[in-house]
Amino acid sequence: MLILALDSSASPASAALLEDGRIISEFYMHTKQTHSQTLMPMVESVLRLSGRTLDDVDRIAVSAGPGSFTGVRIGVSCVKGMAMARNIPCAGVSTLRAMAENARGMEGVVCAVMDARCGQVYNAMFRVSGDSVERLCPDRALAIADLYAECAPYGAELLLVGDGAELCHRTFSAFGARLLPPMQRFQRAAGVALAAAETDETVTADALMPVYLRLPQAERELRKKNEQAKENSGI
Fold first, then answer.
1. Residue 33's pLDDT is what?
2. For FRET with 118, which of 46, 83, 87, 231 sits at 20 to 30 Å CA-CA?
3. Could you tell me the pTM of the whole model?
4. Nearest alpha carbon to residue 80 among 211, 204, 196, 197
């Protein structure tokens, strides 16, 4: 099986090809260029330089969230466009689950964490042992203080990954949590491909949707404004 995978859920962006369980090509960028500029050229490069075309692809996987609202939308939109024309099955992969692949082969508990701003982080916990990655909780958005209280009992067994890992490490280091190095810390398309290969669940291009975990800021502010207006009017 040939899986094409994309990730644009945060500042880095990447594209990768997985063939029969082996990463055969990956393009990773962490620059100031926007994902709308870089993502499709990366897809074209990993296919062309691997001697493959989109017609050879059996499944397209994408980090469907959580993450940057704009980044997630770009990735999902690119996959929908490619898959729809050729009726290629799609796989929407949790960004947090894909990041857990960075610690595969290690021993410990992975705390995958992304900065959700407003004092919150997106998080999921996984236990890794050898070639096994076991999910311990669903994807969620929670306060850093609440995550600290939950993670402290793991001590030095805790492995921090994600763009929010360094932010958490400032306090989590007090109980020995370890910060993975940059090349293992950030999400990448290779992790998306490996996670997608572990399941037979796919959807059509039409059914592929982003998973934000919480409403975009503009919508949150609008709801807050509407609630305040109702309170002021006595409704």
1. 86
2. 231
3. 0.90
4. 204
Give the DSSP letter string of the chain: -EEEEEE-SSS-EEEEEEETTEEEEEEEE-SSS-HHHHHHHHHHHHHHHTT--GGG-SEEEEEEESS-HHHHHHHHHHHHHHHHHHT--EEEEEHHHHHHGGGTTSEEEEEEEEEEETTEEEEEEEEEETTEEEE-S--EEEEHHHHHHHHGGGGGGEEEESTTHHHHHHHHGGGTPEEPPHHHHS--HHHHHHHHHT----B-TTT-----SS--HHHHHHHHHHHHHHHHHT-
Tokens representing 215?
């409403």
Residues of the chain with pLDDT under 70: 215-235
pLDDT score of 224:
55
Beta carbons within 8 Å of 152's beta carbon, 6+ residues apart: 172, 175
Residues 25 and 204 sit within 8 Å (Cβ to Cβ): no
Nearest to 65 by CA among 223, 202, 194, 192: 192
Residue whose token pair is 């042992």: 129
pLDDT in tens, 151-183: 999 999 999 999 999 999 999 999 999 999 999
In one-letter notation, the amino acid at residue 152 is A
The type of residue at 68 is: S
pLDDT at 222: 47
In 3D, which of 54, 182, 39, 187 has the Cα closest to residue 112? 187
Q: How far apart are CA 84 and CA 62, in angstroms?
A: 14
Q: Do 74 and 36 contact (CB within 8 A), yes or no? A: yes
